User: What shape does this take?
Amino acid sequence: MLADAMSLDRRSFVKQLALVGAAIAARQGGAATPKTHAKSHTAKPNIVIILSDDVGYGDISCYGATHVRTPRIDELAAHGLRFTDAHTDAATCTPSRYAMLTGSYAWRHDGVQILPGDAQSLIGEHQATIASVLKAAGYTTGLVGKWHIGLGNGSIDWNGEIKPGPCETGFDDAFFFAATADRVPTVYIHNHHVVNLDPKDPIAVSYKEKIGDEPTGKEDPELLKMKLSEGHDGTIVDGISRIGFMTGGKAARWKDETIAQTFTTKAEEFIEKNQHHPFLLYFTPSDIHVPRAPGNQFKRMNDCGVRCDVINQLDWSVGRIVDKLRQLGLEKNTLVIFTSDNGPVVNDGYDDGSDRALDGHKPAGPFRGGKYTIFEGGTAVPFITYWPAHIKPGTSNALISQLDLLRSLAALVKQPVPEGQAEDSMNELPALLGESKKGRDSLVEEAQILAIRDGHWKLIDRSQGPGLHPRPPRPAIPKGKGAAARIARAQKYPVAPLELYDIYADPGETTNLANKFPEVVERLRAELAKIRNQGHS
Ligand code: NG6
Ligand code: CA
Assistant: This one.
């Protein structure tokens, strides 16, 4: 919540970016230089990136989940490449999505943190994105789903033209919502306009104070169909109270139980419409983020509660996309990538019973932590590449970052990346296609503080404290549900300024080896400092 109050000086950010960009251009010699490939690829395959929300490494059955089954995602893994050491940039959504689209570590930029629904656009006008690079290569580019990287220039008129947004960052067509399903405004946007808006019922949004006279979670909790556990006490829409306040736009408001259906249908329509040209579909379902309100056909399908029901709903969406590609004969020439934006969370502010229903299900699989945490559970996510004509089925333990998609996809379609951009993205196309077993040597993980992975080693460096850039620290142990468990965990694992783990031997990060291997600690500290200071990877 505190993070939501932060604002960003966009102009200074863009200026800073240009300076950093020029310096990197000089070092990197500009455009991406594709690594040499053993094979040549079909010139322009369609590309579908499915970025799910808050899905943990252990939430998918081909990654070990047994309480919930995900047959359609498993099918991609069975006929594609399943990565076991793939990472998001950060343990929360906005920095993770910003980094994936731009190929730049989010922690390099002030203000790239969980955004309120009315926050301004974080991506600079001339900043390269996966979409702009593929568009330059002749692709038709589409976004369907959650955006959450900001809109407008600081004050949005929800009743007028909403820009800049996805269309100004390289998407030809965008059907999306601004932030998260638990944040106002609870409306869909198509390109620059709210969908189904009645001009006689204009929308107003505030994250500062109550506006209008509609009930709120704080004042009228008896009206809620989903109880709160933390925050989320703003305007009640469709029986669920949200973060922030809104009035108006009644005809435009979504029904939570049909979000998955709506986004999936729009994604199918995009594929259908663009079937004759190369396309990029960036499909970002709201599942399995809170509030978890599955459609009727997915309700109570599992004994591990509603969180598992929305995992099934996500699996259904993925299946529908694959079926559409198959039906149109596009499957063989389409690269599908399935992944998640950050690690899992069970109770994320609504008391929907998911924590009590877990029954042994382990959302982060073998890893410690999850969403918001610097442990592997925060950024290690399911990641599958599927391209029947080109990828041999298997698993890969290559170290991969979502940051790498930009330069890898640019290399795939032989499109140069504009000079000085995507400074942390690496061309890992051979690893993504299974032609090489090796990925990156190292990567940085973020959850307000930083950690570095180098091969099997991981160093968490808390000695530099929180506040990489000005952002309010999270309270150490927030009050409310789950506080007792969090306190117990904090006592069990006292925080050391430096933690060194051998991730291959100890994925659960239980044994701090910092005192045993001081030379490894020093090497990784120096490497992290270098990546920070030189302004690129
Ligand atoms: C937090 C919200 C959480 C979720 C998260 C963003 C509270 C108490 N918590 O501030 O519910 O919305 O922001 O999630 O309000 S993310 O996946 O988009 O990063
Ligand atoms: Ca997320």
